[in-house]
Amino acid sequence: MANLTVTQTNNATSGQTDFLPLHGTDYVEFYVGNAKQAAHFYMSAFGFQALAYAGPETGMKDRVSYVVRQHKLTFMLTTPLRTENEIADHIYKHGDGVKTLALSVDDATQAWEETTKRGASNHMKPLRTNDAEGEVVVSGIKTYGDTIHLFIERKNYTGVFMPGFKAWNNPHYKPEDTGLLYVDHCVGNVGWNQMNVWVKFYEDVMGFNNILTFDDEDISTEYSALMSKVMSSGNGYVKFPINEPAEGKKKSQVEEYLEFYNGEGVQHVALATNDIVKTVSALMSRGVEFLKVPTSYYDDLTDRVGHIDEDLEPLKELGILVDRDNEGYLLQLFSKPVEDRPTLFFEIIQRKGAKSFGKGNFKALFEAIEREQEARGNL
Question: Is the pTM above the cut of 0.90?
Answer without folding.
Answer: yes
